[in-house]
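Let's do one together. I've listed all components of the complex below, 340 residues spread over four lines.
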Amino acid sequence: MESEATETAETRWLDQTERDAWLRLVAVVELLPGVLDAQLRGSAGLTHFEYFVLAMLSEARERTLRMTTLAQRTNATLPRLSHVVRRLEDRGLVERVPCPEDRRATNAHLTDAGWDAVVDAAPGHVETVRTHVLDPLTREQLSQLRAIGDSLLATLDPEGRMTALFDGGA
Amino acid sequence: MESEATETAETRWLDQTERDAWLRLVAVVELLPGVLDAQLRGSAGLTHFEYFVLAMLSEARERTLRMTTLAQRTNATLPRLSHVVRRLEDRGLVERVPCPEDRRATNAHLTDAGWDAVVDAAPGHVETVRTHVLDPLTREQLSQLRAIGDSLLATLDPEGRMTALFDGGA
DNA sequence: CCCGTTTGGTTGTCGCTTCAAGTAACACCT
DNA sequence: AGGTGTTACTTGAAGCGACAACCAAACGGG
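Okay, and this is what the predicted structure of the assembly comes out as:
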């Protein structure tokens, strides 16, 4: 698909090294969510995203977080999070509590049942992460992956919304 | 779900290095699809997956591929691909042709309009990939990413369905 | 041949994400 | 106080993907 010249700017097509890296990254990005979802759904009846939401709450002070904060940490839009939390609330895993200091705001609070759900789901999830991601890599590759991730997130997530996890993280 | 305490095997939790790598990978996996979709949708009215389908066809012999083969290369389930191809056909970008050799099978063929759509969309897409993925990384990191990707795909995609791109690829 | 099985694809339904719109509360300015 | 704009969140409709059920054509023995 090498088009003739004369575009506003010449497109720099990918060389072999770039293509190799890119195709593999795309494949991983495409496949990983399915694997995570399948395992969690089968063993705990949770989406990976739902699990992630519960996990974030479980690590938060008082097991409580403002919807906006939670949305940032999970990289969700507010509508998405609102729907998910409503469903989790229907299942008794999360509670919505109006925030006393700012009456516009809502605090999402992990219930005891929600805590149990995370605790139950965690080992299987960690095991999946190990077998599919961590164990196949050498220690050196883990460090490389961390560095690569940082570089990518610098442009993918310039505000560092999701990286609150790393910096202040638990 | 998990029955009583102290499961069959003690869970090996993540150490710092593992956690660092994993959280960044999750963040990238979560953010990248959105970025790709947004750019392609805005500039070409295509999903990244739709673009990928068209791109696979554009590189195939005769610009034609069996549905099953196309599904494997794009890591789609057959129902998903069927729906997507129908929509692409409605827009005149793809044609369905019954396969003469195997009358169960259907060949998806890229129309001229479909070819044009890929050619139009490609530069912007490549540019996005550059700015968000390739350019932030050093040449060495690209090689590392390739190796890491290979290791992950060994377990994520054991049959190597998606890797047909690398090996025989064009 | 004929029948059971496998392969190739399509269709329908459901759940989740997104997008657009709407409501309520705060904050600031006058 | 009143008005304007912004923030925080919810809701409803629309679109896409997953799963299951389905049909049709191709094997593969007896």
